[in-house]
């Protein structure tokens, strides 16, 4: 069983479209995250979500919104996609507590290409 | 924002010890320093975590000096399968809610 799974693995879409990436974790973790990895392989946290507490990285445009139907799922919705949104998006999860937050389990990534 | 810097790339041969250093100014005082490994087309994978001095597990050692302005990941006797990108992860001293990944070091192991 995959601990953190995200779908789709690849997503190609046109500018201006709205898309979603789904993420599920079966580890029983309390906290879930979305990370963005750009073409230079830099990793940046976008959101962390813990029991209805959302911590947003202020550099993330409000076109990006996380939605959590339950503790095991954190989906990423993106409105009005732009070329610069092309990247690999990783979902991750961890237990509570600072040390555990830094010991996160990552999904395989979703490669988003905006054309 | 705390700044983290790693060498862009390193080369090594099988069986050698590899040390990768991450420089991080103004990290959160009470936070851990964590290292991840990433293979192509995969998500990062946790390797090791420490707060100060030295930590060792079955795959690596982590050295953290008293001033905590840097940390060094040590991989003993690397093999071809250790070829990957390695990232440090620290807490931001300016905003303790934030976690910041290092710039990443691409390690290439040759036979």
Q: Could you characterize what this model shows?
A:
The complex is a heterodimer of chains A (115) and B (111). In chain A, 3% of the residues lie in helices and 54% in strands. Chain A has one helix and eleven strands, in the order βββββββββαββ. In chain A, strand 5 and strand 6 form a beta hairpin. Chain B is mainly beta and 111 residues long. In chain B, strands 2, 4, 5, 9, 10 and 11 form a six-stranded mixed sheet that branches. Chain B has a five-stranded antiparallel sheet with strand order 1-3-8-7-6, with no helix packed on it. At the A-B interface, strand 5, helix 1 and strand 10 of A face strand 5, strand 9 and strand 10 of B.
In short:
Chain A is mainly beta and 115 residues long.
Strand content range of chain A: over 45%
Number of helices of chain A: 1
Helix content of chain A: under 10%
Helix amount of chain B, in percent? under 10%
In DSSP terms (H or I, runs of 4 or more residues), the helix count of chain B works out at 0
Using only C-alpha atoms, the radius of gyration of chain B works out to: 13 Å
Query: What is the global morphology of chain B?
Result: globular
* N/C terminus separation of chain B: 40 Å
Features:
heterodimer; A: 115 residues; seven-stranded mixed beta sheet; 3% helix; 54% strand; globular; B: mainly beta; six-stranded mixed beta sheet
